[in-house]
Amino acid sequence: MEKFLIFTVVGLTLSATYAVIASGLVLTYATTGIFNFSQGAIGMVAAFAYWQLRFDWGWPTPIALVVSLGLLAPAIGLAIDRGIMRGLRGTSEATRLVVSISLMVALIALANLVWEPGRSRPMSTFFEGSRVDLGITTITYHQAITIVVAVLIAAGLRFLLHNTRIGVSMRANVDDDALVLLNGAQPKRIAGISWAVGGFLAGVGGILIAPTLSLEAGSLSLLIINAYAAAIFGRLRSLPLTFVGAIVIGLTEGYLAGYLPGDNQYFAAFRPAATVVILFVALLLVPNPRLRSRAHLREYFPPPSRSGMVMLAVVVVVAGVVLATTLDTVSLITYGPVFSLGIVALSLVPLVGFAGQISLAQLSFAGIGALAVAHHGHDGSPLGLVLAVVLAAAVGTVVALPVMRLTGIYLALATAAFAVALDRWLFNLPDFSVGPVHVRLFGLGSVSVDPLRILGHEFDSPAALLMLSAVVFAAVSLLVAALRWSRFGRQLVAMRDSEAACATFGLNLMWPRVGVFALSAGIAGLGGALYAMQLGSVAPARFDLLNGLPIFILVVVGGAGLVGSALFAGGILYGVLPLTATLGPVIAKINSLFPGFTGVGLGRNPSGAVPVFSAAAGPLRNDPVVLASMGVAMAVCYVLRLAEVFGNWAFVVLLGVALVAAMVVARRRSSSGAQGPGQGAGAGPDPEDLEWVGVTEPFTPAHLARMEQVLDLQSVDLEGAELDPVGGRDA
Questions:
Q1: Distance (Å, rounded) from C-alpha 588 to C-alpha 37?
Q2: Category of 685 on φ-ψ map: left (φ > 0), alpha (ψ -120 to 50) or beta
Q3: Most buried one in 468, 552, 596, 666, CB count within 10 A?
Q4: CB-CB contact of 602 with 298 (8 Å)
């Protein structure tokens, strides 16, 4: 009985902490409509600040608490609202989610930059060593304070939201901020207060839970994902149900800690994942959300042109040849994942960009592909590569079937729960059997992967594997583009734009969702298999949720509906950032901030970075003379590099100079009309871009003239009089 009471107290203490953090999450969502994925990271920063003030600098506890909770945490929440979230009006839920996740990644990177990771930072509890005797058991002062604080916060929030004018305005703000404004309230001020209170509650939770854990930025931020499960119990709306969910989760963790056999590897691995399993089940019990109707969004992703896709595929293969022939072995290992993990990034384009569905588990599917090729690709058998696609797609289908009625943040949390369950539990299991089927995973360590062998040729060198990944990336990018051109692709885009309209026309939304999810998981499994071959051996840590988030962020930052965004993500993460990191340790630390802060700025340009680059390169693409000259100049630089006239840094600089110079010359020739017949402004818009004229940009005489040329229309009216290019009667 005493053991039961001890772990009940432990569970209730955890419940109180989760309830405090989840209540801030629910408050923010219920008043602003934005799910704050960075809630745990805000609590982590407050905990680090409290440690710095109280234990490193020796400040008195009350002053350290006032600065951390009364100033820093609310200030972070207010800064997030004013500097970031207000710019997200008119963006899709995927964009808002990416900004929130990016903020979490940025705060983790910033904390690691300020407080060096790997260093021990012990934090004592409040009134260390003091206990309260309850007769049948005892409870520490810290545990008692945690429970009392949670009760006081619950009562305070209830009073704020239901008995004050500002609370009623906060609840009304998310439903119709214009109506709130008409009733004399100030929606922006209300949102700012909500974010400040949410930041304060995150800080309280972080400081209360930090003494019982290791003060480490990533694990502390993700551990508080347990609070998300409590928020889902409350359906992101109800604070009482949120507290009930927190009690269920906290007690579950407490009892598992006390009664789960520690000497059993299967049970021991389950304990860290128990909460995310509860989160996954809770999501399945959430009532069906309403179908999304058409919204006026700022994102715009035109279908890819055939000429553009051919050019992209050629550029990827040529880039692979250049990298394979100019880099040494160490550099090839460093930059090799550009294309293999770029394929994992490419798997997000049909899912997020075309269908508008959100998955945070793509790197987990890549891990399944890596396992398949490790266990079934012995001696380089291509069967391993095939099974990597098939098994990843099959697991994707199994995951998709129960959660496909979910959309938006619910689907994102479900896939995140699946990813964390793999990280903390399934990938760490020893081998086991299910009936006649023997399942082999990472074997409590790592598994080796044999290089691929096709028709007697073995891809057994880093250069050969990089070229293989480049060719596969080019082929898969063409496949994804063909999907966008197909009838199925148009169905996915229609579903993304308006689920309600699709249902009105009798389209069954379930099977398109399951199909695109399975396809996306299969592509991710292929990328994971190629990545595993490049590494030679793989461990579960390579495929955890935190490593997958930057890929998801940069695909959306590049432009989720554009095939080029995958190349953008792979090139930035595994090309540009490792390259600039060689400039010094300071640059390497700053690089860790890049994915997070680029995602935070997505609200200013929700269509992504690739359209900006594409528009800048437009004159160059339309000027064959300058384009050919640039190609010749780059080829000369490449030949000189192979002759070892200069090194790789000079080669990179010369390629950059050639590209910039060609873009400047092409733009000047375009503005002066010197590109020659059939080029530049005189040729009019590309016929494949005319589909969206009148929607994304106004009609011009050049557009109408180009339409007549493409459609081969005769500009003659009924009386035989010729019409001018804009459709008016010739005087």
A1: 26
A2: beta
A3: 552
A4: no
Biggest CA-to-CA distance, the chain: 105
Collect the ranges in the chain with pLDDT lower than 70.
1, 89-90, 92, 135, 171-185, 187, 223-224, 262-266, 268-269, 286-299, 444, 603, 673-699, 702-703, 705-731
CB burial readout 256-268, b (16+ within 10 A) else e: beeeeeeeeeeee
Element of type H or E holding 454: strand 453-454
pLDDT for res 249: 87
Cα radius of gyration (the chain) = 28
Quote the CA–CA distance of 266 and 474 in Å, as a whole number.
41
Q: Give the CB-side neighbour count of residue 302, counting CA atoms within 13 A.
A: 20
Q: pLDDT for 142-176, tens place per residue?
A: 888 989 999 999 888 888 877 887 777 776 655 55
Cβ–Cβ contacts within 10 Å for residue 277, how many? 18
Angle between helices 187-209 and 2-32 (to 10 degrees): 160
What is the C-alpha separation between 195 and 24, in angstroms, rounded?
Answer: 8
Handedness of CA 605, 611, 613, 618 (dihedral sign): negative
DSSP state letter for 605? -
Tokens 């588990």, residue? 361
C-alpha angle 597-556-482 in degrees, rounded to nearest 5: 160
Of the candidates 457, 212, 222, 496, the residue with the CA atom closest to the CA atom of residue 352: 496
CA–CA separation, 516 and 400 (whole Å): 10
Question: Which residues sit opposite 458 in a β-bridge?
Answer: 453
Strand runs labelled E in 70-222: 131-133, 138-140
- Between CA 637 and CA 650 the distance in angstroms is 9
Cβ neighbours for 90, distance < 8 A, ≥ 6 positions apart? 296, 297, 298
Q: What are phi and psi of 498, to 5 degrees?
A: -160, 105
In the chain, the N- to C-terminal Cα span, in Å, equals: 100
pLDDT, residue 719, reads 43
| Residue type at 43 in one-letter notation | G
The domain segmentation of the chain, as residue ranges, is: 2-259, 316-549, 624-682, 684-731
CA dihedral (594, 596, 600, 604) positive or negative:
positive
Query: How far is the C-alpha of 6 from the C-alpha of 314, rounded, in Å?
Result: 65
Structure tokens at 120: 């021990």
Whole-angstrom distance, CA of residue 16 vs CA of residue 21? 9
Site of tokens 């009105």: 504
Alpha helices, DSSP H, located in 498-509: 499-504
pLDDT at 171: 64
Residue with tokens 């963006």: 91
